[in-house]
Amino acid sequence: MDDLGQSDSAEREDPRIRATRIQDVAKLADVSTATVSRALATPERVSPEARARVLEAIAKTGYVPNPAARSLRSQKTFMVLVVLPDLSNTFFSKILRGIEETLFDAGYGMIISDLDGSPAKEAHFAAFTAAGRVDGAILLNGHLFGQSREGEGQPARIAIPLVALCEAIPGADIPQIEIDNRAAASRMTQHLASLGHRRIAYVSGPASNILERERFLGFKDGLEAAGLPFDPAFVIPGDYTIESGVAAGQGLVARKTRPTAVFCTSDEMAIGLMRTLLSAGLRVPEDISVAGFDDIEFAAVAEPSLTTIHQPRRELGQAAATVLIDLLQGRPTRKQIRLETELVIRDSVAPAG
């Protein structure tokens, strides 16, 4: 009987059987339990060497932090909501990578909200955010919850920090991270004009989108700088998708007087347009030059490879996440950040024949 009792006691105390505790991690990493907690919650407050030892100790012991207890103590969720208008758009891939890796390094996780044009989804995530289910949010949808893109409607009352990314939100008193879309579009238009193109078509994005409004102004700026007249007949509606690029290409094929160059305000539209022109027997760039905007992954491998405006998408995501973390941790931050773009010259554009 005594032997059984001793055996039970030994089993209860056997560290291989009981759950690993934070004290076990601290002992193995030769740090305090407070350092282990900081390495997980606010890693920027821990030296890289100490954090490396903590992570190695966690891997060896199999320690699993209790996020519910951590949130209860701090009144924080350590989660950030990222609001996208359309998750299927390949443009967002590198942006999300930049956001996620920056949040991870600071001890935060990420929840993606794909609105996909659904008012019901937007209402759900507005309530989700207002209820404090996340500590902050990064908005890539171009408007505050409860408002339209034009700023109409009453914004939802949300107390957590917000950051606007890529699409600026006019009138919103929150940090905004973007590129200079107008200057970039003007640069591309002037590049086409410098190659002798005088009939330059423009395939637009959605009229309600602030990116489209800025890029359209840039297109007109570029024409003016090159001494070219603006012709509304060469403005073709689109919506940034491959399908709208295909439709624009079909319209151009049917025209008697075609442009010598086409500036599409997204790479997806440019790729769809090029495919349609090539299928109709037209040559790119010999018959029609085609340019895009964004420099998505497929731009360099399209046939022909696409001349475009490179957006530093990963860096945009990193900048937005860094600003949000600064807000969450009470540090001062800038209200507006604009990152530089680059004109990438490839094979889809050539001098006018």
Give an overview in words.
There is one protein chain. This protein is of the alpha/beta class and 353 residues long. The chain folds into 3 domains: 2-65, lambda repressor-like DNA-binding domains (434 Repressor (Amino-terminal Domain)); 77-179 and 313-339, 3-Layer(aba) Sandwich (Rossmann fold), CATH 3.40.50; 181-311, Response regulator (Rossmann fold). The protein contains 12 helices and 12 strands. It has helices spanning 2-13, 22-29, 33-41, 48-61, 67-74, 92-105, 119-130, 181-194, 210-225, 242-254, 267-279, 313-328, and strands at 79-84, 109-114, 136-139, 162-165, 176-179, 200-203, 235-236, 261-264, 289-291, 308-310, 336-339, 342-344. A 6-stranded parallel beta sheet has the order 2-1-3-4-5-11, with helices on both faces. Strand 8 (261-264), helix 11 (267-279) and strand 9 form a beta-alpha-beta unit. Helix 8 (181-194) packs parallel to helix 9 and helix 10 crosses helix 11 (267-279). The N and C termini lie far apart (100 Å). Mean pLDDT is 89; it is low at 1-16.
Radius of gyration: 26 Å
Strand fraction? 5-15%
Quickly count the helices.
Answer: 12
Strand order within the widest beta sheet: 2-1-3-4-5-11
Indicate the structural class: alpha/beta
Low-confidence stretches: 1-16
Report the span from N to C terminus: 100 Å
Overall spatial form: elongated
Can you write the helix and strand succession as a string?
A: HHHHHEHEHEEEHEHEHEHEEHEE
